[in-house]
Amino acid sequence: MLGRGDEDGSASARERRGKRQDGYLALEDYGALGDGRSVALSGADGSIDWWCVPNMDSQPLFDRLLDPEEGGRFIIQPEDPFTVERRYRPESNVLETTFTTDGARAVLVESMNSGSAGRLPWAELARRVDGLDGTMRFCVEMRPGRRANAASPYQSTIGGHDVFHVDRVLGLFLCSDGVVCERTDEAILARFSVSPGSREVVAIVAGEDEPLVVPPLADIDERIDLSDQEWRDWAHRIFDAGEWRDDFIRSALALKLLLFSPSGAIAAAATTSLPEGIGGRKNYDYRFAWVRDAGYTIKAFLAAGAQAEAKAALTWLLKRIAEKDLRVLYTLNGDCAPDVVEIDVPGWRRTGPVRRGNVATAQHQHGIYGDIFETVSRFVSCGNILDSSTAQLLVQLADRCADHWRQKDAGIWELPQTEHYTFSKISCWQALARAVELVDQGQLPPNCRERWARERDRVKRWINDNCWSEKRQAYVLHPGSEGLDAAFALSVRFRFDEPERIARTLDAIERELSTGPFHFRYSGVHEEEGCFIACSFWMAEARALMGETDRARQALQEITVGLSHGVGIFSEMVDPRTGAFLGNLPQGLTHLAHIMAIEAIISGHGSATEDC
Length: 612
Known about the structure:
The chain has 612 residues and is of the alpha+beta class. It is built from 14 helices and 31 strands. Strands 1, 2, 3, 4, 5, 12, 16 and 17 form an 8-stranded antiparallel sheet that branches. Strands 6-7-8-11-18-15-14-13 form an 8-stranded antiparallel sheet. The protein has a 3-stranded antiparallel sheet with strand order 29-30-31. The protein is globular and about 75 Å long.
């Protein structure tokens, strides 16, 4: 199988992959590897350009993605000119890259390894090359990054092993006997050849502030296939999405990469500062856990039948609710996100600044109320039961929503100006509506039901009185605005019961915010960023939930085709003119929106329901 958009197998299709422009690969030329703790991005030219060790939010060991000249990289590449075919192994996060040169073929198999008991207590990045036809010569470069000159990597030999040091990270470079190495102070360079039936293995074992195990290379090689089988076993238990199964599984596997297993947090993405528009300044660090994304992802995991992952993420979310100050986002360990620091490296496509930290941590977004209650509602609708401590936390949260819904907030798009955003008010309505339903189901105590129901109805009246534009025949971004908000499509999933006005608003969004199959987030952003892919999936889902199944299917098919030139890993945004990916990746919000759109289409409900 070729990269998903290259099924024709033509030479021109293959040659589009792995070509660097000014030192940079296209974002769609990356595949993601992960082990439940960290994620590495492997380029189609055999270069791993991003890997934070030991965690997704650690400092990068390899950062060529943002610094093409000085950044760290781990390259395994044919010496001769080559073309590329790429795929994930079926229902797995093990990645295969087939290189073809003049007269030879070889396949590179890559894995962030796990063991028979789950995640390993160290980071193990394994890369195996098998010869297929002819003889192919490879060059290897393993060069740790300097962290914008904040660290000075060096090599040493300990116990006969090649060891590298980067600040607090200690790593081993391991290779099979056929790999001939030349060591410098800052890098390891190597060469090897493969022919039919021959194999070479190169691996890194790394950790931070901890002793390192030195596993036999044969065990590392074996764990590639063990990890592949573990992914397949997990995917086999996922809900069967019928004709959409392959796409559904691929997005579920991408979300699984972003589940930080030590805490249960869901990372929004595995990268920082990949720009939403070339030459702009919308470059953000997404290696944090948003309450919103956690809620949506839990819902998607439940839709996929991945109850263990949903439970882990829900437990993380409930711990955050129990804290005094509920925030928009947290570190993967549950702490407050640090202040923003700008890093002195060029950035992808020389679009800076590169940032660590996120300013949204200090914002308030009413959407967190709806996100949490929608998540809990879905959890109990699958036959699960809330404990008394969680129930009391939710009572306090519903009271807080009832008290504060009249205030302005930053909105789902985390805008610098606070407003009475329509979507935020709908989220408050959603929270109170779900709270009342949880009381009726016996999951929450009944003493506050009357108050919540009264405020729910007040919120709805306020929205209809202040946010509906007769002139536009649509709900606008906020009162006094004539702009539209594509996130409004989620109001169908939320069961906001104004079907005629919702339908008119969706039609207006299609007319004004769409370009081809994709949609901009809200009015006026088309010159500074790409289309937000999740919005397009939300629109398809909304059509399906409204009973417009054929229209939803057509939309989903067109979106899928528009994204099909990668290996199945989606970014945050896409340039509607070129199809080029933009923004951080893998982007959890995009993949979970994809899952929910497929679920809505294949369920055939014709309305937003809570069936599992």
